[in-house]
Amino acid sequence: MKLAKRIAKLGTETAFAVSADARAWADQGHDVYPFHLGDMNIRTPINIIEAGYKAMLDGKTGYGPAPGIPELRAALAEDVGNARGITYTPDQVSVQPGGKPSIGKWLMALMDEGDEVLYPNPGYPIYESQIEYLGGVAVPYGYIPTDQGFKLDRERIESSITPRTKLLFYNNGQNPIGAESDDEEMQWLADLVLKHDLLVFSDEPYFDIRYGGKSKSIASLPGMQERTLIAYTFSKKYAMTGWRVGGALGPADLVGIFNKLNVNYESCTATFIQHAAVEALKGDQTGHQDLIATLQERRDVLVDLLNDIDGVSVYKANVTFYLFADVTGVFERKQYKSQGDLRLEALRETGVSFCSRSHFGKPLPGEDRVFIRFAYSGIDVDRIREGLVKLKAFWES
Questions:
Q1: Domains: count for the chain
Q2: Do 124 and 196 fall into the same domain?
Q3: Of the residues 282, 316, 350, the one at which a domain ends
Q4: Cα 376 vs. chain centroid, distance in angstroms?
Q5: Do 257 and 297 fall into the same domain?
Q6: Which of 6, 57, 150, 390 gives 179 a disulfide partner, CB atoms 3.0 to 4.6 angstroms apart?
Q7: Tell me, what CATH number does 82's domain have?
Q8: In 145-251, which ranges are continuous DSSP H helix?
Q9: pTM
Q10: Tens digit of each residue's pLDDT (9 = 90 or more) over 201-255
Q11: pLDDT tens per residue across span 155-184
Q12: 73 and 20 belong to one structural domain
């Protein structure tokens, strides 16, 4: 069978490759501490489960409208708009089977072959995968580590813009590094976007996964709502990773294209799941509040334990459920030849499984530090402590 040439350009979510290594190690009878995948071991709040079950019992198991059921589109417009201080109407909302489908649909709607698209690196690997698969030119931009977390590499972003640059991916509350822009940095980026007439994909799955302060969307800045698509997902805020439901919010004409693509790709998002999503937005929020408290406890414990290891330092990110730890000291002391060696030896000697920086894009010129990502959404506090004791003993030996 001869495959289409474009398939060679299609990447994958590299954390799943790390999961395969961890699963293989566990299948041999070893204990594994899963810090590698941003899934959750926290159950979806019971009121959401009951709403989905009731919808099934009530017969809401057939096709629904391609844009999404009216109740969910209205609820998303209200909830997302109010949280960001802007106004959306239901015709500016397209329901999606998760957050990820919006990436490809946005590119299909706006990117012609050969257009250049800026995307974060390290960053979510599906951005680069979809840009290249759909015929665009993926142009990475990076971050600079500081005492206040990671900041956009402004010089690199500005120097990367050419007459062919059309689109920009922006993931504030960033996977994998946990970075978020302060007001000044976000305004700088918005000014740059306006200056060069770019369109923005604002990926906001972690907007509500924060432990202090207040999240902000670039869409709320003057002149930005009409050129920004917000990708929303229920996966993180409501522990609904496996339900596969989200939304795309933006200009009505662009959302209309999304709805047309919905017809072509999945017909509609499962109707009973959409009714559960309405309950998530409109119903009791205790489950979300408990989720944040649980994640914050995990973060605090993990930060303290990582910073207690000789050769490791990590900034306490106030958003997401990821920590991007600098392990240069360990890498040099243990004389590893590659990040893969560091990761696999840690797994085999301690059972601690994590992703390396290389799982989130090829390192950019000038990067001279070694980073790894710890996700703490799928591991309890007692297991965090147990795994980090083993990792500390091994890395300091």
A1: 2
A2: yes
A3: 282
A4: 14
A5: no
A6: 150
A7: 3.40.640.10
A8: 154-160, 183-196
A9: 0.94
A10: 999 999 999 998 999 999 999 999 999 999 999 999 999 999 999 999 999 999 9
A11: 999 999 999 999 999 999 999 999 999 999
A12: no
